[in-house]
Amino acid sequence: MSASNAVTNALRLTIQDRYQDRARFYRINVITANTPGGRAVTSAPPGFPDLVGCVDGRYVEIEVKAGRDRLTADQISHLAATERAGGIAIVAKEVGAALAELERKLAMARCGDEQEAARDAAVTGDRGARIGVQDWIHEEAVLRTRP
Questions:
Q1: Rounded to 5 degrees, what angle do the CA atoms 35, 36, 37 make?
Q2: Which of 75, 131, 138, 145 has the fewest CB atoms inside 10 Å of its own CB, making it the most exposed?
Q3: CA 44 to CA 47: how far, in whole Å?
Q4: Judging by DSSP bridges, how do beta strands 32-34 and 23-27 pair with one another?
Q5: Quick one: which of 17, 42, 41 has its CA closest to 29?
Q6: How many domains would you assign to the chain?
Q7: At residue 134, does pLDDT exceed 80?
Q8: Cα-Cα-Cα-Cα dihedral sign, residues 100, 105, 62, 28
Q9: Which helix (H) or strand (E) holds 55?
Q10: To which H or E segment does residue 113 belong?
Q11: Handedness of CA 107, 111, 112, 117 (dihedral sign)
């Protein structure tokens, strides 16, 4: 097993163990195969990361690099697009540092969510985007019982 494969597998298992049912991660192996007609087909687009998943409702992509491996232009572009779209993108060289980076970015995302909810509340005069489904159902039931 290559160093990159070992880090990828260890990282996926460690994330699943740490976050339990709050996370799902999948290993993506980009392969190319030829159809019977001779056309080449790939399993994922160029630059697609090694691990994709979700932690606490946040989309996460992790590109694993070991040894002298470097990011390709396609990988840089893909990870940047993920972050522009609101996801979390990480380049991992070893498990401990990658977990620390994931924790840091999740904390930043939570902080951003709270700031957005506060802005929404200030604009709308209510609890904004943070209202939960159960709260909404309760409020609807209360409104229905009023004369």
A1: 85
A2: 145
A3: 8
A4: unpaired
A5: 42
A6: 1
A7: no
A8: positive
A9: strand 51-55
A10: helix 95-124
A11: positive
Cα–Cα distance list, 16 to 10, 13, 20, 59 (Å): 10, 5, 5, 14
Domain around 19 = 3-145
Q: Indicate yes or no: pTM above 0.90.
A: no
Phi, psi of 85 (to 5 degrees): -85, 0
Instruction: Report residue 129 as tokens.
Output: 């985007």
Backbone angles phi, psi at 20, to 5 degrees: 50, -125
CA distance 59 to 39: 32
Q: Length of the chain in residues, anyone? A: 147
Query: For residue 91, what are the contacts with CB-CB under 8 A and spacing of at least 6?
Result: 62, 63, 64, 65, 71, 79
What letter would DSSP give residue 139?
Answer: H
CB 43 within 8 A of CB 66: no
**Tens of pLDDT along 71-123?**
999 999 999 999 999 999 999 999 999 999 999 999 988 887 777 766 666 66
What's the distance, CA 62 to chain centroid?
8
d(CA 95, CA 93): 7
Looking up residue 39, the CATH number of its domain turns out to be 3.40.1350.10
